[in-house]
Amino acid sequence: MRLFLIAGLCLLTATAQAATPAQRSLFRDALAAAQQGTLGNEQAALRQLQTYPLYNYISAADLRRQLDRGANSALDDEIEGFIRAHPDLPPAESLRRNWLPSLARRGRWQTLLDNTDDDDSTTNSCRAVNARIKLGMNPRQAALDLWRVGRSQPDACDPVFAWLDQQGLMGPDEILRRARLAVVNGQYGLTRYLGRQLPDNLKALTEQWLAVSETPTNLSYSRNLDGDVAVHAFKRLALRDLDAAADLLPVLAQRLNLDATQQFEMKRYVALLYAQNHESQALAWFARIDPARMADDEHALGWEIRAAIYQQRWPLVIEAIRKLPPSLANDEEWRYWHARALAETGNDSQANAIFEPLSRERSYHGYLAADALGRDYSLNERPLPRDAAAAARVQANPALARADELRALGMDHAAGLEWNALTRDMDKPALAEAARIAYQWQWYSRAIITLAKADYWDDLDIRYPTPYSDAVRRFGDDNGLDPAYVLAIIRTESLFQPQVRSSAGAVGLMQLMPGTARLVARQMGTATPPSSALGVPEINIQLGTRYLADMLARWNDNIALATASYNAGPNRIARWLPAKPMDPTIWIANIPYTETRGYVQRAMSHMTVFQQRLDEDIVPLDTRIDTIQSGYADPGSLN
């Protein structure tokens, strides 16, 4: 099998191997020349690059440089022709985005309109509506749609709003309407700005909305308040003082004459907060909500069940799950808890009838079902079957060769854009073959994501690779960690992308925040790493495994708490501890943050597969995860 894969790899990467180091050097030089405006000096190189997969990147860079120096109608025609000739080329899309503001500045309205997509940014949508205005059209509704949002809009919308004003469509009622949207959306600065444009009596109304929203305790004596503003302020009060908000709700409903929808929003919010705070009042509040309004509310229905699970009110768990719509009731989480509740109430035969098929699934709840039956886990490994026709379609797409060549050049971000273009409209067989190619390229994140898009879940080679295993074993051993656990965290955090950065600033395979990395390094007595060093796999794994070991030490080796802490921070986990010892599966099911709850479940499930992949003994979840205690002695580790 391994020899076959190696042979297949040689075939699939033939395009990239056909490019010589000399061609790549020529491409780099030509691309730099295009960006600097000296492409005319590279004619000999361009002739040698005519068949090179990335030749059009040079053309796009040259057009972009000309655009930056000053556009004209001839250049517009050239750019438009290039974009239309290469609709799936990422540099062509980048060129289009930079060209549109130039068209707007120069009043090329029809060309701008012709080249604006329906799913463009708000800025480009505003430019397109303004183009329609300039062309003598009357885009009243499109302009109002841009105005009627509860947030500040880009500067490109200003001419559209000025036109609305000139058309007499921006009277006090319209301004007040947007001010109300803004305050309900928490955009208080915009609300003040709009209020200043209103006559005194309406300005006073916006000031009332702001007073109650910014200081929600003012709700207790507010009268004649807009119902939706009251709901917004009520939610802010509930976050500060949930009991006070719950007591105030019936008073507000009567005093402000709130409608059924507004009362539902308030009751739902109170019920959810009580449930996420693990308070017993949650069940009583869910019982006050009209079931018809909850019928399709997946989030609220889930928390009603979790609240009953937390309180171990098993008959209520059964009742709530049986009321779920079929699309939700078939979710593995609720199948498990239905069976668990049946077992807890002595209905073993009914419970086992649900546990049995669930136990054959490779998933967190499937493993829990197997534990309930005392069975081995089913990993259901099925290598991806080959589809020669689908593979040929993938190979024929020029984006594949471009992605391959960009990776060879170390231009991974650009390669990712090409991969997105390659797979955007693929059918499932082609996606599966593309995933195989990415795996053979050792581009594991793309392989995993693309195979998931193909809806094929059982090729464990592709879905659970084991790169960096030497570093994982070495630093895992240094910190007393199971390598399967480390790989599970890496897969959950970064999908094996060593250079990835999160929006919050976390870096690398184990997604370390630079501040955490510095603190860990000081504890270890090693040099403080710069942020760039966290993209080096060995450095990231060394620091990440130490931090993970600290989390385990913080919670007396409780792997569920350590995993949750790695995601959400140990201080939050301390606030979520139960009042008395609790079954860990109940605690995990009631982690308040959806992201952290899913993170823990995925990591525990991934760890099981990695134990198999590393030829370790598979440790059952009911053995691996300890009871959650009400308190833990802090050993003075990172927090």
Automatic annotation (TrEMBL):
PROSITE patterns: TRANSGLYCOSYLASE
Coiled coil start-end: none
Domain Transglycosylase SLT per the UniProt entry, residue ranges: 476-577
Superkingdom: Bacteria
Annotated signal sequence range: 1-18
PANTHER family tied to this protein: SOLUBLE LYTIC MUREIN TRANSGLYCOSYLASE, SOLUBLE LYTIC MUREIN TRANSGLYCOSYLASE-RELATED
Protein name per the record: Transglycosylase SLT domain-containing protein
UniProt keywords, alphabetically: Signal
Family: Belongs to the transglycosylase Slt family.
InterPro entries, sorted: Lysozyme-like_dom_sf (IPR023346), Lytic_TGlycoase_superhlx_L_sf (IPR037061), Lytic_TGlycosylase_superhlx_L (IPR012289), Lytic_TGlycosylase_superhlx_U (IPR008939), Transglyc_AS (IPR000189), Transglycosylase_SLT_dom_1 (IPR008258)
Domain named Lytic transglycosylase superhelical linker: residues: 394-460
Stored SUPFAM superfamilies: Bacterial muramidases, Lysozyme-like
